[in-house]
Amino acid sequence: MFPSALATIILLAATAAAHFTVPNDDQDMSGVVVNGISYSTRVKYMRLANEALFEQSGPCPFAAYGTIIVNHTADEIVCRGANFRTGDPTRMLMKHPSIHGEISAINACTTVFAGRNMTPTEIYAAWGELSICTTSLPFHTNAESCPMCASAIRWSGFKEYIYGTTIQHNYNVGWGVITLSSYDVFQQTRQLPGYQTVMLGQILTNETDPLFSWQYNESYPCPNGCEKRMSVTRGYLGCVDPNA
Ligand SMILES: *[C@@H]1O[C@H](CO)[C@@H](O)[C@H](O)[C@H]1NC(C)=O
Ligand SMILES: *[C@@H]1O[C@H](CO)[C@@H](O)[C@H](O)[C@H]1NC(C)=O
Ligand SMILES: *[C@@H]1O[C@H](CO)[C@@H](O)[C@H](O)[C@H]1NC(C)=O
Ligand SMILES: [Zn+2]
C-alpha cells in the first residue's frame, strides 16, 4: 500500500542519513588557544553571532544562519550578516539566492570600508586582520551550494574562520545539504595568493546545534522560549516566537 511504501522510503532515508559521514575537521576545540585568542573569547563571539541573528530574525528563525566579522585587535564586531534567502517572508530583506549570512556580512563590511574611503588594496589588507564567525558551516538548505561561502571566505583572505554547527550535524537532523565541507574546499585553495585562513570548527555547538535541530523534527524542543505550533505552510509542528 502507498502509506507503507512511503514509510519504507522514509525509514531508508533516515538509515542512510545516520551512516553518511561528511568529511570535516571534526574535533573538540574546547580550551584551544589559536592566534593568542583565548577559548572564552571564541565563546563570547560565537554567542554574539547568535545574538546578531536573533536581533535580525527573532529567537527561532527557520534559517538560523548568523555571521559576524570581528576585529580581535580592537575586540569589536566590524559588521554582521544573516541569511536572507529563506525563512519568514515578512522578515525577508533580500531575495537574491546567493545572499547567505557570510556573503551578507562581507557585503556589510565592504560598505563600512568604502565609507572610510579605503582603497581596494587597503580593503584587501583589512580582511587579513579580521575573523569571520558563523553559527553554522557556510552552506544552506536549497540548491545553492555553500562551497560558495567557503570560497568567498578564501577569496577575501580572512585571517580566521570560526564556526559552530557542522554540515554533518545538520545532515543528521534532516537538512538538505551540499556535502562538501569547508575543510575540503580549503584544501583546494592553497594556490590563492595572499593570506591563508585559519579554520576553527565546532565552537559552542552546545548552543548553536539546538538552533538547527527543530526544523525537521517535531519532537525536538524549541530554542529560546519559542513554542511548538502547527505550521500552515509546512503542515507539521514547528517553532514560533510567542511574542511575534
Ligand atoms: C582593527 O583594530 C585595530 C586596533 O584598533 C585597528 O588599528 C585596525 O585598523 C582595525 N582593523 C580593521 C580592518 O578595522
Ligand atoms: C555550553 O558549553 C560551554 C563550555 O564550552 C558552557 O560555558 C556553556 O554554559 C554551555 N551552554 C549551555 C547552554 O549549557
Ligand atoms: C528528534 O528529537 C528527539 C527529541 O530531542 C530526539 O530524541 C531525536 O533523536 C531527534 N531525531 C533526530 C533525527 O535527530
Ligand atoms: Zn552559503
* Cα shape: globular
Q: What is the typical, i.e. mean, pLDDT?
A: 80
**Largest beta-sheet characterization:** 5 strands, mixed
Our count of helices gives 8
**What structural class do helix, strand and pairing data support?**
alpha/beta
Protein name: CMP/dCMP-type deaminase domain-containing protein
Organism: Lentithecium fluviatile CBS 122367
InterPro entries: CMP_dCMP_dom, Cytidine_deaminase-like
Domain CMP/dCMP-type deaminase: 40-178
Features:
244 residues; alpha/beta; Cytidine Deaminase, domain 2; 5-stranded mixed β-sheet; two-stranded antiparallel sheet; binds zinc ion; catalytic activity; Cytidine_deaminase-like; CMP/dCMP-type deaminase domain-containing protein
Description of the structure:
With 244 residues, this protein is an alpha/beta fold. It has a single domain (21-216, 223-240), classed as Cytidine Deaminase, domain 2 (3-Layer(aba) Sandwich), CATH 3.40.140. Helix content is 37%, strand content 15%. It has eight helices and seven strands. It has helices at 2-19, 39-57, 101-115, 120-127, 147-156, 167-172, 182-187, 205-212, and strands at residues 66-71, 76-82, 131-136, 160-165, 198-200, 227-230, 237-240. A hairpin with a 6-residue loop joins β6 and β7 (237-240). The radius of gyration is 18 Å and the shape is globular. The structure holds 2-acetamido-2-deoxy-beta-D-glucopyranose (3 copies) and zinc ion. One 2-acetamido-2-deoxy-beta-D-glucopyranose (NAG) binds next to α8. Residues 1-18 form the signal peptide.
